[in-house]
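Section 3.1: Structural characterization of target chains.
Under the original work plan, the team committed to producing a structural model for every single-chain target entering the pipeline before any wet-lab resources were allocated. The record below documents one such target. The sequence was received from the expression subgroup and is listed exactly as submitted; it comprises 475 residues.
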Amino acid sequence: MFFIDTVEVPGLGNRSYLAGGADAAVVVDPPRDIDRVLEAAASREVRITHVVETHVHNDYVTGGLELARQVGAAYLVPAGARVSYERVPVSDGDLAVIEPGLTLRAVATPGHTPHHTAYVLEEDGRAVGAFTGGSLLIGTVGRPDLVEPRLTEGLARAQHSSAHRLADELPDDTAVLPTHGFGSFCSSSQNGSATATTIGRERAVNEALVKDADTFVAELLSSLDDIPAYYTHMGPLNARGPRPVDLTPPAVADADEIARRLAEGEWVVDLRSRIAFAEGHVAGSFNFEASGQLATYLAWLIPWGRPVTLLAESAGQLADAQRELVRVGIDRPAAAATGTPRDWVREGEWPRSFPRAAFADLAAEYGVGDGNASGAAGAGTEPASGGGSEAVVVLDVRRDSERAAGWVTGSVHIPVHRLRSRLHEVPPGTVWVHCAGGMRAAIAASLLDAAGRDVVAVDDGFDGARAAGLPLTEG
């Protein structure tokens, strides 16, 4: 009897898998912190005989090479992948025997990358699961634009063909087990809330399987959003072979050390909740919540290689954040501190703060709401865009694709991942910054606050803008 265990990596929107039988197992697309995988194998009392990669990953640092080395497993990597370490090159149709009656069959599925390979788990010759990596996802497919712009259209067409190959070759009840697609920016879209699927379900709903190739490619290419900046570094790092993880606690920084690092231009990152940060924080620090998409957004915004000091409310929060960050190649915090802002500022200094608000509060600044919403939206009311410290500036930090559906009339649009280099474009005045839910607005508010701007963080879902009667421009 076979088993398939999922190892969730929710901060990055990915999954890895441990699959096997009574005595042996294979690991598919392991995260860099392999101790979780080793614990899963130990609980099953199985030996890891094979570690496989569906592709050279562009969104996280793999733990595959180190895992295979530690347990003495065969390390299977697609033959077309250009890597600089020894591995077992895998080609279409190759079989790996996990244990008698349980095999893994390689299926070439180019599209997400040119060399992408899926693996079908077969029990006594019957397909029971397909590890689809970044090819066939839940309702969608992986992005085809992460390798080389000139290859994107061709890879999009290959994605369509690969999805159809899997659907044509596998039975309806075969479990589809993708690596990406649970919030990952490697997914071409975020389709619904389903967390499990089969070939039969995908045949009925997946955009690559219900549309002809030309329509699918045109719509896919038109929908692609910005690529996280740190992706540039992940592929080459994985091709070279990542170093083992070091999760030992960083050096402890006192208030003087924190101030020195800020003065030298290093990043000091406060991991506490956006509520706690707004109430009080070290001047010049940035807020990336440990409970949000910490690794994705910090790695996206920070200049690559810039030293980072972490501020946390507890040792546990610090350790969890350090684990998240090694997954994207931010290996060793320069320093860290735990406690509260009063512990992190020098004697005689005080923490900074800024207000939080809802869209209803912004509506009050517009002079709308309180029962007047229906008339106000049609009145063309807009916020001030300059002219002094009392001016209200509405800054929308959502992505282009999100804003396309509608925005607060007169708002300035700078996606959060572009804000650091475009702060000079934010007009004078008090900046009311919003996103779709509050997390990215908090990041943006901290960047603005560190730059000396007066800021209000709108901690509200965007649906609240319509409910508050704010004037909206429909996309």
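The chain has three domains: 3-240, 255-344, 356-474.
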